[in-house]
Amino acid sequence: MSEIRFKSINKLNDSFVLIFGGTKGIGLAVAAAALEHGASVFVTSSQEENVQHAIKELRTTYHSEEFHHRISGASCDLGSSDQLEENLRKLFELASSGSTNQRRLIDHIVFTAGDSLKVVPLSDSTPASILNSGTVRFLAPLIIGKLATKYMRISNRSSITLTSGSMTRRPEHDWTVLAAFASGTEGMRFGLSKDLAPIRVNVVAPGVVQTPLLARLPEQAKEEWRKVLLTGELGWPEDVAEAYVYSMKDRSATGALVDSSDGRIFN
Fold first, then answer.
1. Residues spanned by the domain of 22
2. Would 25 be classed as within a structural domain?
3. Is residue 210 predicted with pLDDT exceeding 60?
4. pLDDT of residue 1
């Protein structure tokens, strides 16, 4: 009897996934999901310590050499607008060089990176503070789009998946600036989808997800969130990661916005 060939779960087999913000929370969950689907992953964060911790955690979770050789990473500072393009170029060169210095093309880029959420009321904002708020979350994805085609496989099998959030349509008080940049990311997908075609570009919009960032909130605040979510539960990174896997796997999905927000936009 011939071996069964799985058409769905093997779509990411032998692919190479570069994950910005891949050391914690949703990004780390995406790395784990990609590994389980047969991909190699390269995780990056601004702190080398976080990168090494994530690599160790992934190798501990997937404790066999078959997985270990598919896990790598390096740090990349996205917080300086003056150095952003050069830092990204160096990161792309390193990631695509491979462990044997044999060039490898990137199949998928996932962007979940973000700096500490600094909520500044619009009344207290300045042009400088507003621009600084968008360096990592808005400017970096644009420069990634500029550089990506030199390092990616040019095919509809390839994708870039960005991250916005439910705050674009349901902002809290004083979230004007952050919501504006997140909305810009959602709009960015249309232009990038055309400019980078046939590479596909999509955006995932998570809601209130139980990441290290959310862990800082007191339990009472989390309970208040649960009351307004249609599912009655905060999101889990491993569930939201499925949206990114979908974006990578569906070769017809481009310019799409995928909600994974527990229904927050309805309440």
1. 16-266
2. yes
3. yes
4. 54
